[in-house]
Design goal:
By secondary structure, the protein is of the alpha/beta class. It is built from 12 helices and 14 strands. The model has no long low-confidence stretch (mean pLDDT 97). The structure holds serine.
Length: 316
């Protein structure tokens, strides 16, 4: 029986992943946790919820023991732009939280899923069709913690036999919960701008390509990899996955097909632009496809249709 503790459960991924996991494994078997209880009844009232600050190892251990979990999905982390504003805090939360999670998993014999990111790459990485195994010298504290995290997860698998798994997520686009301060957030905010104001000011320059994915595909990736046959996995942690790659003008054009009066201008943020330019234009995700059958369902056109429909319902 799978019983799962999710850290950072009230963030952009967690609020949707917890509901999906509760559907699959049963409401009582998925323990949501976050540093604070937020006004999010969908999560805190649809199953167990605990306050867990991942920097405090005993809080992770207490929640894991209380519910006798056999898996931890560790999502609590700072994103790239907030991480650049406060690198020391990003190190403390991203590295400290992951280290504590892996230690608890080792002691309690739990498996661990934790996401890495396109942020684990840097300026010296090949930009197009970025290989699974390549140069990783990121230029942000977020990226430093993601590369170190990938290595730490591999280490716990090889050294202690902890069943660790992970993917490198691209920018994630969703309508349920806003992302918490990343570089790819424009690709979420643009839809809110289009639906609410019929306009958006973009902080990323025209022509800047990044990988992106619609949340339903991201959730499927987590579940599929966690359920994958371990004997087929050559890479356990840090699989490249992507669903689409676009620059701001492409998402603008796609929205305009649905909302002809939509307008966009640019006011570039130098910090996030520098980060975006250091990341790949497009990932090669063939290892994930071959080793555990990764396959996205949404492209820019189908995602845009669904995002606009869902946001129109949510914001009316
Ligand atoms: N979406 C993340 C960010 O922009 C990248 O993983 O920080």
């Amino acid at each position: 029986m799978k019983r799962i503790l999710v850290t950072g459960a009230l963030g952009q991924i967690g609020t949707e992943l917890v509901l999906k996991l509760r559907d699959i494994y049963g409401e009582g078997n998925v323990v949501a946790s976050d540093i604070k209880r937020k006004d999010c009844p969908k999560i805190v009232e649809s199953g167990p919820f605990e306050i867990v600050d991942v920097v405090q190892a005993h809080q992770i251990a207490d929640a894991a023991k209380k519910y006798d979990v056999d898996m931890i999905i560790h999502l609590a982390a700072l994103l790239s732009a907030v991480g650049e504003a406060n690198p020391a805090k990003a190190w403390k939360i991203n590295m400290g939280g992951l280290f504590n999670t892996l230690e608890v998993a080792r002691e309690l014999k739990c498996s661990v899923f934790t996401p890495s990111s396109i942020g684990a790459f840097g300026n010296s990485t090949p930009k197009d069709n970025t290989p699974q195994d390549t140069i990783q010298r990121p230029d942000t504290m977020y990226g430093v913690t993601k590369v170190a995290g990938e290595l730490l997860c591999d280490y716990y698998f090889h050294k202690y036999g902890v069943d660790t798994k992970g993917v490198r997520f691209p920018g994630l686009i969703s309508y349920e919960t806003l992302p918490g301060g990343g570089t790819t957030d424009y690709a979420v905010h643009i839809y809110y701008g289009a639906v609410k104001d019929r306009r958006y000011t973009c902080y990323i320059k025209k022509g800047t390509y990044m990988d992106m994915m619609y949340m339903p595909d991201a959730l499927n990736a987590v579940v599929t990899l966690c359920e994958a046959d371990p004997s087929k996995l050559i890479h356990r942690n840090a699989f490249n996955i992507s669903a689409m790659s676009f620059a701001p003008e492409h998402i603008y054009n796609e929205i305009k097909k649905n909302i002809p009066e939509f307008e966009m201008d640019y006011d570039v943020d130098p910090v996030r632009q520098r980060i975006a330019e250091s990341w790949p234009n497009s990932l090669d995700d063939s290892a994930a496809r071959a080793e555990w059958g990764w396959k996205p369902h949404y492209d820019l056109t189908s995602m845009t249709k669904d995002m606009l429909k869902k946001l129109n319902e949510k914001l009316k």
